[in-house]
Amino acid sequence: MDFNNALFRIQECLERMKILYGEQMFDEWLIIDFREHQGKALYYSGPRSGEFDSKFRSELDGLKGLLAEHDYQPGNFEFARLSVSTRYDAAITIAPRIYLVFNHTTKGMFQIRQNQGWINALVPFLELADKFQRDPLTVRN
Q: For 87-111, how does the pLDDT look when each residue is reduced to its tens digit (9 = 90+)?
């Protein structure tokens, strides 16, 4: 999948999740490339764009460790069950060592899961993971 198509699919997924969840489930997301060891943001969307660069490294520390521990393949996903505040909540592997990371900037996963729309909103999330499993993101170096 090319980069523009991936962005379209992600935004489409987030809109469907919002409808099924009853409000914005994740208000921030980014595509991060860990092909180089420390990670590089390829795309960011969210309310903290002005402060994103300064907080990027510290907020990804826990997620980086989690992602580095496994050999995730495109379509694999992970939820940070104990996330709080602005720590990232979920990730989908969209290409080898490249991840789509989701977050809600004021809620952790425990709070997100309290909404009854949580289970329904997983459907488009899982469908997006499946799309990347069948057609991983292609990124030029």
A: 678 899 999 989 999 988 888 888 8
In a domain, 61, yes or no: yes
Torsion on CA atoms 56, 57, 59, 61, rounded to nearest 10? 150
3-class secondary-structure state, position 91? strand
Q: For residue 88, what is the domain's CATH number?
A: 3.30.450
Question: Can you tell me whether residue 44 is helix, strand or coil?
Answer: strand
Burial class (CB in 10 A: 0-12, 13-18, 19+), 74: buried
Question: Are the C-beta atoms of 48 and 55 separated by less than 8 Å?
Answer: yes
pTM of the predicted protein model: 0.88
Structure-token pair, residue 18 = 């919002």
Structural domain boundaries, residue 46: 3-134
Is residue 138 classed as helix, strand or coil in its secondary structure?
Answer: coil
